[in-house]
Amino acid sequence: GCNREFSSEDVDYDLVARSRLFHFGYPTLMDRFFAEGGGELEKMFARAAQTGAATSLDLTIPDPDSPSGKADWREILERALPHVDVFVPSAEEILATMAPEEYGRIASNAAGGDMIDAVPEGLLRELGGRLLDCGVKVLLIKAGHRGAYLRTGDVAALNAKGFELPDENWSNREMWAPAFALDREKVQNASGAGDAAVAGFLAAMLDGTTVEAAAKCAMLAGRDNLYGADALAGLPDWQGMAGELLSERAPASDLRLSTAFEFCEDTGVWNAK
């Protein structure tokens, strides 16, 4: 089907050139993008970047019993990421692709529990540094009920592509955004929560919000997604989300971090010292 045959040649680059952002998800499910060392993924992102649009990438966990699970995703991503501005994997996805040995160890130790609780904060920070060294400008690592780890480099290149991010606020930041409280009686569906978080984050970036507001939009969209019967039904419109940001605050005490981070009462996020 489509996942087997889709390639870089199927992208309308003229349309990409008329856009501010090119977002691509799940090369881990698409045969052409992990074959032969990932050359097709690198080619597509390089061509998209050449149009002048910003680029973003999301993943899934490669199935260990499939050809994708046997591909060298570390090599594939290191080829593609110099052309990726915004990278938005989950903690499990980035470990499975960039640190598969650690992923296997942590998954084994967490057997019977939630793996996300066993992922060391320091490991995500180490991977964050490596990913920025690869060329990523904005990294959001989704971490379920632990919130999200966010790290940025210089965002001037994004602003040159049509974004209007407050440079001093966005550039060279490192923080954790705590998850918002969940009303379990309202939960209907968990399909697409990660995608909703990514959409909230990218929409906030395109709107030119502060980095703290963008992180919280991601957390709100991911949480609100759970309240709908499908992937979209629980989500408010943009004005509704802005209202939620003003009226609701994530509980800082629910996120256990080392002394390398300190909570900011004004913004509601944990900043690296």
From TrEMBL:
Residues 43-222 form the Carbohydrate kinase PfkB domain. It holds the Pfam family PfkB. InterPro entries: PfkB_Carbo_kinase (IPR050306), PfkB_dom (IPR011611), Ribokinase-like (IPR029056). The keyword Zinc does not apply. GO terms for molecular function: kinase activity. Keywords: Kinase, Transferase. Belongs to the carbohydrate kinase PfkB family. This is Carbohydrate kinase PfkB domain-containing protein.
